Sequence to fold (499 residues):
Amino acid sequence: MTILLSTLNARYAHASLGLRYLIANMGDLQAETQLKEFVIGAKTTEVVERILAHQPRIVGLGVYIWNVEETTKVVAMLKRVAPEIVVVLGGPEVSYETQEQQIAQLADYVVTGWGEATFPQLCKQILHGPKPLMKIHAGVQLPMSDIKLPYALYDDKDIAHRNLYVEASRGCPFKCEFCLSSLDKTSWPFDLDLFLAELESLHARGARLFKFVDRTFNLNIKSSLRIMQFFLDKLAAHPDDPVFAHFEVVPDHLPDALKEAIKKFPPGTLQLEIGIQTFNPEVQTIISRKQNDEKSAANIRWLCEASHAHLHVDLIAGLPGEDIESFARGFDRLVAINPHEIQFGILKRLRGTPVIRHTEAYKLVFDPHAPYTILSTDRIDFANMQRLVRFARYWDMIANSGRFANTLPVILADAPFANFMALADWLYAKTDATHRIALDRLAALVGQWLRERGSDGEKVAALLDSDYAGQASLRHLKPKAEKEKSDVANQRQARHMAA
Fold:
């Protein structure tokens, strides 16, 4: 084995689609190329040891915003203990602002952008000469018909235990400045017949979970309908062995034909990720985002009411030109529509994205370390930005987890953002933590907060019990509620006596 391709995935369930594309397009070098994936959090020494066990001459590493710091350590150690190995980097994190990055300085070569043609060519030069003189090699974009599809490289273990990432197209025609896809100018589809044949092969091998990474699945409705029909046919033919599909869609482009297809999916088989990001038209203009808010809201409401699709809707805090009050209005508007999940994200400065052009005008301050999260703007100072970060974390734990489905409406009541921000501030004051809060403790804290705000202790305990039916009984909260109720009565009596 001559070439080892590797990366540190965010978790085991994630299988690297990009590296499989490289292997599929290695040509004569494919037989000499292997794949070895790791997960972030692994010890650097163990990663390096396992890489070296393959005795490669070339190591290609996929670098992303979530793994760049750990991958930098891997590259540094590789070059220290085995300097003869040639390290080649690729991936979105090293495709822009490349020369200023420590990881690029440590590596031998970097391929920026599309790698299917450039990486094999670079490997041939490294192995057989002439030796490449330049460190940075701009990826050559092949015609879509020349790119060999990688799906046969998902092995049986991948199919059985991991998300299978697929794409019917690359690129995006929209220009949202916080997104790397804003640099694409357009979208390029793969041959749909060939793509569907690959899905057919995966399904025949047992694949049932397909996550599409297309930035805009519903851009071409005819293609979208054909792909959805593929899954509907499988659901009809194998009702006891259903497939699950995940698509990312733009919310204001949902024609009747697509709605009719979506309605046919039974519960538990379709998830739609929908990017709203902001409901503020002025902010949308600043970040070059085109969105019909009324149509978007109406479509999300329709999906909630008329389909079985699980909806994951995104909002971003910290965008240039948006203050907390504006974000809160958008958040409350989305809560009123009631999607299954609201992903509360904090703006990040992905390398190469045009959002950086607003730095001076809106006083954008980003963390210099990955994932380059916004720290403050002219509208939101550092302290309040940290409150939003904690809000997002607690929202995942309480709302998006689905574990407080009956209690959440009481928490949110008539002022969702304000109420949950108050809960987030209170939780942080009580725990000084946003991670490693045991579920029972979190439930007890939520109950305590509700009672302190005037909710009836018995009703709170009943809500929490109903949320955890079949999981973990919280009936032990009832005596506590009774004691607290008694304590409150005693305090009132003491006040009356003092008067």
Summary: The radius of gyration is 26 Å. The first strand starts at residue 3 and ends at 9. The chain has three domains: 3-142, 154-380, 391-499.
